[in-house]
Amino acid sequence: MDVQAGLLDKLFAAGHLVETGVQGLYGRSGVFEDVIARFDALITRLGGFQDAEVLRFPPAMPRAWFERSGYLKSFPNLAGTVHAFCGNDHDHAALLECLSAGEDWTGQQQATDIVLTPAACYPLYPVIARRGPLPAEGVLFDLQSYCFRREPSMEPTRQQLFRMREYVRAGTPEQVQDFREQWMDLGQKLIGTIGLPFTVDVANDPFFGRAGRMMKATQREQALKFELLVPVNSEASPTACLSFNYHQDHFGKTWGIETATGDVAHTACVGFGLERVALALFRHHGLDVTVWPDPVREALWGAA
User: Fold this and answer.
1) CATH no., domain 3-80+118-301
2) pLDDT for 43-57, tens place per residue?
């Protein structure tokens, strides 16, 4: 049995994850959810000095925004759309016949004006743009959302529906790069506080296709993305639990976001994979949270 399957089986046996029959789609126990809530609160405490504007979007976004974002150019294989029945009574009867016969019943399903959110920050940029030019000090947002990426896997850290917490900064290049550097330090402090081993390394997004290979190389060469990596599935292939991303002016140009001086705004974000951090905690501290090391329990649950 490989390492990731072994960990997944242990999580199922302990009841922390609930199997559904679909890879990467799991129920979560109350204990698992409590660990996520405690870690999420720890992020809030650490980032409270920023006075970020809190926004919470649903795990879906307008299809028009999604198409304009450029996501399909880079990650068409990960996208998820929302379809709905658009037939009449006759079509409904045919659907029920197919369902009864165990045949494909989706023929009358059509794409709606909603898609599943691929990253917590994607619904934010058009909202920033609608507000007009940024103030001189730029803007900072605190986001959290369920996200969808179509990549079924036996790795417990690679789920199809998962939660992402983000801080997103928009402003001048200097403002957003300073933000990212600050959070690269704070992120390491955060993960050290909960007793997890980690490394930080330059990384790239999983761009699709031949053009994607060039984009991966460019992203690495310009050091636009760093990841904080924790061994979860294996020591040899650690898992990205935090990411620190400098988008340059990509979203500024896409959405027409301007600085106070009329220049194209730059953006950056720090992302926290909430399920991934919870899984890392169970992997390194054990399946029984009551016997986790005292410093870790104090960081998450407070002093006894």
Assistant:
1) 3.30.930.10
2) 999 999 999 999 999
